[in-house]
Design brief:
Two copies of one chain form a homodimer. Chain A is of the alpha/beta class and about 220 residues long. The first copy, chain A, contains seven helices and five strands, in the order βαβαβααβαβαα. A five-stranded parallel beta sheet of chain A has the order 3-2-1-4-5, with helices on both faces. The longest helix of chain A is centred in the middle third of the chain and has 16 residues, at about 100-115. The first copy, chain A, is globular, with a radius of gyration of 16 Å. At the A-B interface, strand 3, helix 4 and helix 5 of A face strand 3, helix 4 and helix 5 of B.
Chain lengths: ~220, ~220
């Protein structure tokens, strides 16, 4: 049976990516990161989702003590959503960007994939309804794949798959619902309080997605 | 004053890379990794070298529990050195290769560099007197630089420098001696016992380097 390493954050994109990987017949191994994120309740969500699918998972604790992000530093305020178009237009990345986060995640996934002889890495990156983070864009994944090819022993035997990269949030939600993703277990809000704040980018895109998909978000009572 | 992040393993290459960075006027921040390596005494060496230069440093503990390398798994024997030419000829990477290690190290360095606004990352990778690891070759660094450019906010503001990549071990040792690298503090042997084993690749290249440089290795009494 073919194997995949799936990067699982606990958000709805990565949960959907996991269900896509499973639907394609991959035996999935999930990597979950505790990187000091403010919204650490997403870690619990990720664990619950992995358990729901009966996939093995591992929590990796990493230390980004240099911070440089409002997700890592409670002294920096998380901005209210500036609405998507703005990020593209002004090409300014909001302070919720975590320096090199996806590069770090992918590099661990690559190490794991190489060691367990997985054929694929799944990451739920999305470059449509997103905050303009550079490490969510297709050109980054193309470049990283080149680094993988030249910098690992497995090289081209491992593929990095980004099945959601060109989908809208509504399309992701529809795909997830079709595949049975337990969206009630997912978590998106950057503030990570008991309830979603409804104001941060992550809440904004989630609400927009459910609205455009004509579906109800099970997290919103 | 311009800043650099330096990846410091405790071996002679990375120590020399640190001294090169300092000689070029960089204020250096050293990253040292505890990745479960069998020769963990190199971690002590790295700390001592950083302390000697009075550079700030940070030890990062990372969990590569999936292993896939004799450096991470004591059940796999570390091979005797097969002599350099062989690796090139047969294009077989020895089992001391750690899956995606340098990609992981670089990704942390990138995150740190971006957060502290460093202009450069120094890594002592070498593709001349080496074991044929894919993540030590120039083509990998070129590819990774592209991933950095497209996948981070800082992009081209950070340069990844590999000042030793095309030097022989003898040239590295001569450069190091000129810059005052305390080679007596460095550690190379993969076995990590009290004394260098003299048999592993790392010992082989070190001995060859000192011999060709016409110098004495201060670790060998």
């Amino acid at each position: 049976m073919k194997r995949a390493v799936v990067l699982l954050s606990g958000g709805l994109d990565s949960a959907t990516a996991l269900y896509i990987a499973k639907s394609k017949g991959y035996r999935c191994f999930c990597l979950i990161f505790d990187y000091g994120q403010r919204h650490r309740r997403e870690i619990q969500s990720a664990k619950h989702i992995a358990q729901k699918t009966a996939c093995p998972w591992q929590l990796l604790k990493i230390n980004l003590s240099w911070r440089g992000s409002s997700l890592l530093d409670k002294n920096i305020e998380i901005p209210k959503s500036a609405r998507p178009g703005l990020y593209k237009a002004r090409s300014k990345v909001p302070n919720t960007y975590v320096p090199a986060r996806n590069i770090i995640f992918l590099s661990f996934a690559l190490s794991c994939a190489e060691a367990i002889k997985a054929e694929a890495i799944f990451i739920g990156a999305n470059a449509v309804d997103f905050s303009g983070y550079p490490d969510c864009r297709p050109q980054f994944y193309r470049a990283f794949a080149q680094a993988k090819d030249s910098g690992t022993n497995a090289g081209r035997k491992i593929r990095i798959l980004t099945p959601l990269i060109k989908k809208s949030k509504a399309e992701i939600i529809k795909t997830g619902l079709r595949l049975g993703v337990p969206f009630e277990l997912t978590w998106s809000c950057y503030r990570g309080a008991r309830r979603p704040c409804g104001k941060c980018d992550s809440c904004y895109f989630r609400a927009k997605g459910f609205s455009e998909a004509g579906e109800r978000d099970p997290l919103i009572k």
